[in-house]
Amino acid sequence: MVRPIKKKQIQNLQEAIKETAWKQIAEFGAPALSLRAIARELKITAPAIYNYFPRRDDLVTALIVDAFNSLADSQRQVVANISASKLEARFTAQGIAYREWALEYEQRYQLIFGTPIPGYVAPEDVTTPAAAWALTPLIETIQALYEAGKLRVERLPKLMPALKSMLVAWKGFVDQSGVDVHIESLYLAYAVWSRVHGLVSLELSHHTPSFITDPGEIFRREIESLKNQFVGLGE
Predict the structure, then answer these.
(1) Nearest Cα to 108, choosing from 74, 62, 64?
(2) % of the chain with per-residue pLDDT over 70
(3) What's the pLDDT tens digit per position in 123-132?
(4) Is 112 within 8 Å of 67 (Cβ atoms)?
(5) The model's pTM
(6) How far apart are CA 93 and CA 216, in angstroms?
(7) Is the distance from CB of 74 to CB of 97 less than 8 angstroms?
(8) What is the DSSP string of 98-165?
(9) Which residues, in sequence order, are CB contacts of 130 under 8 Å at separation 6+?
């Protein structure tokens, strides 16, 4: 009598589903993400996936949160490896680490910052805290610079009421995480992030001119430029 071959059980099915989803995104793009295709790849039934992710959008949300957490972890690791007294080194290292993370985990970067997935609406109560957590290490570093008197806030234009109102609202959200931050620190964190993000996005989308053969050199110079312009650490 021939005994039937038992299917090998997957130890952590939830993580296996997400890992397979990342592979699928890398090969076909996020819009093509399919629970049934993942089930076929893992050789499991579709209902087995539905126990963890009832809809494709639930899986997308989980991947987005994981991506933001991965970015936050990389930023916090950089900070942990540099003395708190060396704020300028932390500032530079966090900028460089942002690009390195994006290059290493391009699918994660593109999922959270790239082209939206048609029909997908991110649940803000889930994804917004994750996004905020990813930016918190930079906010903390810039706030530390502010407290050390090293931010060139005098170079900033007058804070107009409309922008101040937005920053105050953002401060209220950040304060809930236990970070007491000045609104000018928030503004500069956003300004710094937008500039490094812009360069990384151009590089990953292959929109840099052909004569830019080493985008990393442009990026490193921009970090130094930001330090000289806003942070006052160029001396």
Answers:
(1) 64
(2) 94
(3) 999 999 999 9
(4) yes
(5) 0.89
(6) 13
(7) yes
(8) HHHHHHHTHHHHHHHHSSPPTT----HHHHHHHHHHHHHHHHHHHHHHHHTT---GGGSPP--HHHHH
(9) 64, 65, 68, 69
- Nearest residue to 99 (alpha-carbon basis) of 12, 216, 211: 216
- Within 8 A by CB and 6+ apart from 89, the residues are 82, 83
- The encoded tokens of residue 113 equal 């910052």
Q: Which two tokens stand for residue 37?
A: 């295709």
Helix 87-104 and helix 106-113, axial crossing angle in degrees, nearest 10: 100
Please name each of the domains of the chain with its CATH number.
1-54 (1.10.10.60), 57-231 (1.10.357.10)
Radius of gyration of the chain (CA): 21
Query: Given CA atoms 235, 158, 219, 113 in this order, what sign does their dihedral have?
Result: positive
Residue 193's Cα: distance from chain center in Å? 10
Q: 214: closest CA among 199, 232, 225? A: 199
DSSP codes of every residue in 87-101? HHHHHHHHHHHHHHH
Number of neighbouring beta carbons within 10 Å of residue 98? 26
* Residue whose tokens read 């360069």: 199
Contacts of 171 (CB under 8 A, 6+ apart): 181, 183, 186
